[in-house]
Write a structure and sequence with these properties.
The complex is a heterodimer of chains A (148) and B (420).
Chain A lengths: L3 H4 L2 H8 L12 E7 L4 E10 L2 E10 L2 H14 L4 H16 L25 H15 L6 E2 L2
Parallel strand pairs in A: 1-4
Antiparallel strand pairs in A: 1-2, 2-3
Helix pairs in contact in A: 2-3, 3-5, 4-5
Chain B lengths: L1 H11 L6 H5 L8 E2 L2 E2 L1 E2 L10 H14 L9 H21 L7 E4 L2 H16 L5 E5 L8 H10 L2 E5 L9 H7 L4 E7 L11 H10 L3 E5 L11 H4 L3 E5 L10 E5 L1 H6 L10 E4 L4 E3 L13 H17 L1 H19 L5 E3 L9 E6 L4 H10 L2 E2 L1 E3 L4 H7 L4 E5 L6 H17 L2
Parallel strand pairs in B: 3-15, 5-6, 5-7, 7-8, 8-9
Antiparallel strand pairs in B: 1-2, 4-10, 9-10, 11-12, 13-14, 14-17, 16-17
The chains are: A alpha+beta (148), B alpha/beta (420).
The structure holds pyridoxal-5'-phosphate.
Chain lengths: 148, 420
């Protein structure tokens, strides 16, 4: 049995209620959409790069608490990161919420609060939607990203 | 809380309907999920199976598994007899004229596709029109969109109002001489609305249009009389009627089915095959190509026996009480908004909670053993109308109890606590 508070930790509830970096970046050089066909959740990611760095990043759209909090936390973590570091973080995060054996949570900082998601397989896609969207924004994929 | 549970207990036993006794017939209900007793409230997605259904399938596989309509040996004769007697049960269950009008298919979805392709594709042209509604399940939308693309026929939608009811005056407006097919759900899976199908069928017939009723959500809640309804086609799925998955029924008026070409070719649907041509088998076998889902048909027959034993009137009664009780309890939750408030509806409670996404509601409830459906319920046009991405939906069956409604309400209250 899992305690529901392990999933909906205070930080998650807070980021859901007051999402950070929520809104449009007018001079974004990349705008990419993510879509979860299972629940109809849609998310748009705005990315402004300078050289090999993420100068600014934001998102908008609607979704469940897990997907909104995840996007809020991710965008916070990504600001000022190099594209390379972003990719690294993408891999680490993926490990965090899928790996049974756990990972080094220190390298993930605040993002580690989403670790509870791995006990809820049906919700992993909610947490990873924004990450897959970012990943394809970075790798130059132009199509809408789908979690399916 | 105690006081409420007491009233709940009394209510469960009114009219000689003993829900606790009935629950014993359903093995799956007696288990724990996440350490809590399972509260299964996803009956609109699929219903649970009584022991008699499970046993009938096991009995077939253990005792007389063999192919039908083609063996002279005893096992095959027994299987054929069981298969065909289930057809008689279905015929009686929906009051069709003859077993020729009962075609076994995979489910409601396949039945609708069969009618769209075999009937629609061969009779419609770009001059014609098809009417469906905004309330439909995708299974009663997409086959008609395909048909519309194939034939050029125009697809029109009957709109709904804020209660989730079809607007009949709008239906009358779009109905005309060009209307060839009207396809409408008997009961909405997303909202529980019972549609005024008698009236809609009569009106369509005034213009010579044929009517298909999608009864996927209806047969488990209310009795269906196709003769009385005078619909041209009626479809439903076994798994929503306490039977197995992978089996469903297409009812069609005999003269219509007679004129329609086969949907698929293969064994069993032929009388004679030469290298040049084929004579098709008689109804209903013309539409049952290949070895059918024999155990599914037998299980469906057992499910119908079971429903008849409980009695659809008792079922309707108990479910209406559950719905009234759930509505009353839910209306006390300030954050809760009802989605779908039709005057005539079955035991479906579709709702949203202010500031909490249905997916989170589903996860929190599941943690307490409560199974509900969250999402768009394969009815995205309905969600579009209400401008919401999804709802939470609790759908009750006759084996649910008032005490389970209490657990649901507690669970919903817990959601607000988690987020505040
Ligand atoms: C109203 C309605 N129509 C059609 C269907 C499709 O049924 P099936 O998936 O069993 O073919 C459903 C099932 O969810 C339904 O609720």
């Amino acid at each position: 049995m899992f305690d529901i508070k392990d999933l909906y930790q205070e930080i998650i509830v807070d980021h859901n209620r007051n999402p950070r970096n929520f809104g449009i970046i007018n001079d974004a050089d990349k705008v990419i959409e993510g879509f979860n066909p299972l629940c109809g959740d849609k998310l748009k990611l705005y990315l402004k790069t300078e050289g090999k760095n993420i100068a600014d990043i934001s998102f908008d759209g609607s979704g469940c608490a897990i997907s909104v909090a995840s996007a809020s936390l991710m965008t916070d973590a990504m600001k000022g990161k190099s594209i390379n570091d972003a990719e690294l973080l993408f891999n680490n995060f993926h490990e965090l919420i899928t790996n049974e054996n756990g990972v080094d949570e220190k390298s993930l900082g605040k993002l580690a609060v989403l670790a509870g998601v791995k006990d809820y397989p049906a919700r992993v896609k909610c947490a990873t939607l924004c990450w897959h969207t970012l990943h394809s924004a970075i790798t130059g994929n132009k199509e809408t990203v789908s979690t399916e | 809380m105690n006081k409420k549970n007491n009233t709940a207990e009394i209510q469960n036993q009114t009219n000689g309907f003993d829900v606790e006794k009935i629950r014993k017939d359903f093995p799956i209900l007696h288990q724990e999920i996440n350490g809590k007793p399972l509260v299964y409230l996803d009956n609109a997605a699929t219903t649970q199976k009584p022991k008699s259904v499970i046993d009938s399938i096991e009995k077939y596989y253990r005792g007389y598994n063999s192919n039908i309509h083609r063996g002279v040996h005893t096992l095959s004769e027994n299987a054929t007899e069981a298969y065909e007697s289930a057809r008689v049960k279905v015929k009686d269950f929906i009051n069709a004229n003859s077993t020729k009008e009962i075609v076994f298919v995979r489910g409601a979805t396949e039945a609708i596709n069969l009618v769209a392709q075999s009937f629609g594709r061969n009779t419609l042209s770009s001059e014609d029109e098809i009417i469906i509604t905004e309330l439909e399940h995708h299974a009663n939308i997409v086959p008609w969109q395909l048909l519309s693309q194939q034939t050029g026929a125009k697809l029109k939608y009957v709109p709904i109002n804020d209660d989730g009811e079809l607007i009949e005056s709008e239906y009358k407006k779009i109905l005309n001489e060009k209307t060839r097919i009207v396809a409408v759900g008997h009961i909405s899976n997303a909202l529980g609305t019972i549609n005024p199908i008698e009236n809609m069928i009569n009106l369509a017939h005034e213009y010579g249009a044929k009517v298909l009723i999608d009864g996927a959500q209806a047969t488990s809640h209310t009795s269906v009389d196709v003769k009385n309804l005078n619909c041209d086609f009626y479809v439903f799925s076994g798994h929503k009627l306490f039977g197995p998955t992978g089996i469903g029924v297409l009812y069609g008026k005999e003269d219509l089915l007679e004129k329609m070409p086969p949907y698929q070719g293969g064994g069993d649907m032929i009388k004679m095959v030469t290298m040049k041509e084929t004579q098709y088998n008689e109804l209903p076998h013309k539409f049952e190509a290949g070895t059918p889902n024999i155990s599914g048909v037998i299980g469906l027959g057992a499910a119908i026996d079971y429903v008849n034993k409980i009695g659809l009137e008792n079922i309707e009664n108990h479910e209406q009480q559950l719905l009234d009780y759930a509505n009353q309890m839910a209306s006390e939750i300030t954050e809760l908004k009802f989605v779908g408030t039709a005057k005539n509806k079955t035991s479906i409670l579709s709702f949203t909670l202010d500031g909490i996404h249905p997916h989170d509601v589903g996860t929190i409830l599941n943690n307490d053993g409560i199974a509900i459906r969250t999402g768009h319920h394969c009815a995205m046009p309905v969600m579009e109308y209400f401008q919401i991405p999804a709802t939470s939906r609790a759908s009750f069956s006759f084996y649910n109890t008032h005490a389970e409604v209490d657990v649901l309400i507690e669970g919903i209250n817990k959601c607000s606590k988690v987020f505040n």
